[in-house]
Amino acid sequence: MKLEWRLPKSANVPQALLAVTSDKPLVARILAGRGLSNPEEARRFLDPAAYEPAAPSTLHDLERGATRIRQAIGKGERILVWGDFDVDGQTSTALLVSALEGLGAKVDYHIPIREREAHGIRPEVLRGYIDDGIDLLLTCDTGIGSVDAVALANQAGVDVVVTDHHDLPAELPQALALVNPKFHRGDHSLSGLPGVGVAYKLVEALYEEAGRGDELEGFLDLVALGIVADLAIQRGDARYLLQRGLGVLRQTARPGLLAIMEYGRVQAGFLNDEDIGFQLGPRLNAVGRLADANVSVPLLTTTENERAREIAQQLERLNEDRKFETAVVFDSAMAQIEQESSLLQYAVLVMANPRWHQGVIGIVASRLVEEFGKPTILFAAPDGQVARGSARSVEGYHITNAIATQGEMLLGFGGHPMAAGLSIDRNNLEAFRRGVSKAIIEQRGGRGPEPTLDIEAELSLGELTLETARQLEALAPFGPGNPPVNILCRGVQVEEDKQIGKEKTHRKLVVADGDGGLRVEVLWWGGAGEQLPEGRIDLVVRMRPGFFNGAQTVTIALQDFRSAGDPVGGKGSAAAEVVDCRAETEPEERLAEILSLEVGAQVWGEGRGIEQEGTRSRGEMGPGEVLVVWTAPPDRKVLAEVVSRVQPERVYVFGVDPEVDEYHEFVRRLGGVVKYALAQYAGRSTLSQLAGAMGHSEAAVACGLTVLSALGVRGVADEDGGVRFERCQAVGLGAEAEETLRSMLNEVRAFRKAFRASEDAAWFLSL
Known about the structure:
Blueprint (H helix, E strand, L loop, with lengths): L3 E3 L8 H6 L4 H9 L5 H8 L15 H14 L2 E5 L4 H16 L3 E5 L3 H4 L5 H9 L4 E5 L6 H9 L3 E5 L13 E3 L15 H15 L10 H10 L6 H14 L5 H10 L8 H18 L5 H6 L3 H35 L9 E5 L7 H12 L3 E5 L6 E6 L6 H6 L5 E7 L2 E6 L4 H15 L8 E3 L2 E2 L7 H7 L14 E14 L5 E7 L6 E6 L12 E12 L2 E13 L13 E4 L6 H11 L4 E3 L10 E2 L9 E6 L4 H11 L3 E7 L6 H18 L3 E2 L1 H8 L3 H8 L7 E5 L5 E5 L7 H23 L5 H4 L1
Helix pairs in contact: 4-9, 5-9, 5-10, 7-8, 9-10, 10-11, 10-13, 12-13, 12-15, 13-15, 15-16, 18-25, 23-24
C-alpha cells in the first residue's frame, strides 16, 4: 500500500462538547480534531433538528422560476423536465416529475442517452420537443452552460428555468431563471447542494406556497440518493438534507427502491451512506452509463410492484455488464501505470485509451483516486474521434477550476469541485496533463496532493466492538467533507487469512491481540493480490454497524497496514522538536553552532548543499536523534523518506535554496555529475545516487538523462538497475523532452518555495 499515515493531533475537548455527544469521549475527541470544538456548531452538525436550513428563496432566481412554474400549472401548459443520466440527474428528474404531477402539472421528461447526446442539452434534440408543443423547459442537474439550446428555446417562445449546481461558465444562458447555488460564496450553506438538492428547494417553495409542506418529506429519499451518489460535500444544507433523507429512505415505500435494495441485499432499516455508494448508486448509474436512463424515472416513481421489479431486473443485468467493463478498464489503467510509472510523477493522473468504455471511466477514475491519492482524469479516445474524459478529485483540490485553466485547448467541460466531464483533441493530452497538474499544485501554494491516511483514533482490538461502532455512527453520514474515521490498532497477529467473494477478490482476516486471547474478523476489500508482511503488524481500519443473519453486528474493514514497529509519521513526528532556522541571516554560522552543541547531528544537504562541509545526501542518512534540513527538499516524498530514515527527536530547518531548479543550471550540473561518474566510477551510477547529488527526485533525474544526448553523453540501464554512461555523438534536443523537463523543474521550484515560505516550520512533519 502507498499511503503515508498521519497520527491524530491532540485537541482540547471542552466539557460542553462532551455533553453534546452524550458523554462519548471518543466522538468528542474526533469532533474537536476536525475543528468542531464549539458545542453549538457540533450540535448542528450531529443533529439535523438543531440545524436551521436556508429558505428556498435564498437561491438565485428561485422565486422567479417558481412563479413561472405556478403560471404553467395554472394555465395547463406543457412542462418538459430535462435531466441528466447520472444518479443525481435521475433522482432530480424523478423528484420534479412526481412533485409537479402532484400539483396537477402536465409534465414530460427527457434524460439524454450518454452515447448519443452526452451531458447538457443538444439543440437538435430540443427542437423536436419544441415542435411537439412544449411551453416551458425546466432543467435539473444541467443547463447552466447550454447557451445555444436556451437561445433556441427563446426564439421559439419557450421559457426556460434552469436548475443546476455545476460551476458557472464564462457565458451564462439567457434563461428566464438561473437557479444555481454557485451564485453564492463557497462557504454559503447552500453552495454544496447537488442537482437533486436544488430541485428539492424549488419543490419546497412550490409546495409551501400550495399549503402542502407536510408532503415534502416524502421526496427526501430521492434527495439522499442523489447527494451521496454525486459526492456532494457534506456541509450546510447538503448534510442536513442527507441526514433527514436517510431516515426517510430507511422507511421508503417506493417499490423501485425496495426492488433495488433486494437485489443489493440491503436491509432498508439499517441502510447507510455506504449502501447508497456501493449498492444502490452503482445500479442506477449502470443504466445511465450503458443504456437509456429514462427508464429510471418510472422505476423511482411507480407504485406498481411488478413494474418496479421488471425495471430493477434490467438494472441488475446492466450492473453486471458495468462491473465487467469497469474491471477491464481498471486493469488496463493499472497496466499502463506499471509500464509508464512517470505518469505518477504528475499532480494529476491523466490517461487515455482508444478502447476504454466511456460509460465507466468515471468509476475507474474514482478507484484510482483511492489507490494513488491524487486527482485522476481518464479519457475514452477512439481513433479519429474527440477524447471524452471523466475527472475525480481529492478533498482540498477543485478539479473543475484546475481544468478551466486549460480552457483554450478544451472542446468543452463542466463540473464541480470533486468531479467533472470534459472533451479534448487527443493530440493535446500531453500538454493538458502538464497544465492541469501545474494548476492543481498552484491551488495549494505549490503543494500537490499526497497519498495520506489520516488516523483519528488509536484503539485496542478489544475496543473494536459494536458499541464503539454505534458511538462513531453519531458522526455519520460519511462522505466528502466528513470522511469515515480511521482507527489504528498496533501489534496484531494474523491467525487466519482466506479469500472470499464470488470472484475471490476479497479477503477475511482473523487477527489476534498480543497474548492471543482476543480474535477479531477484519474484511479486506479487493485485497486478494496483496502481500502481508511477516510477524506482527499495525492495522488501520474503519468500523460500522452491519447486519448479518437477522442481527446487527460490527463490520471492520482494513484500510492499510505495515509491520509492527515501523515508523508511523516519524518517531512520533508530531512530538519531534522542530527549530526554525529559515530566517537566519548568517546560516553557516548558525549551523556551526548547532554542530558544536549537537554531537552526532546529521546535516541533509543536496544540490548546492553538498558544498557545505559535513552535509550528506539522502542515501547517506541513517537513524539518529538530530536532523538538520540544510537545503529545501524537492518534494514531499523525498522529505518523508529522509525523516523516516533518521527518526529524529529534534529537527533544525534551514531550507537553503540548492539553486538547481533552473533548466540550464539543472542540465549543466547533471552533465557535470555524469562526467564525474565517467572519470571516477567507470561511468556507472544509480538513479538514487544521481538524485541525491542533484537535489531532485529520481523522476526528474531520469527525465534529465533523456536530454544528455545533446551534450554527447547517453545513459544506458544496467541489468542490476544501475545506469551506465557512455559518450556518443551529440544530437539535437527534442522540444517535447525539454518541455517535460521544464514542467517538472517548475513543480519542484514551487514546492521549495512553499517549504521556505510556510508560516509553520513543522508543517511537513504533521502532513
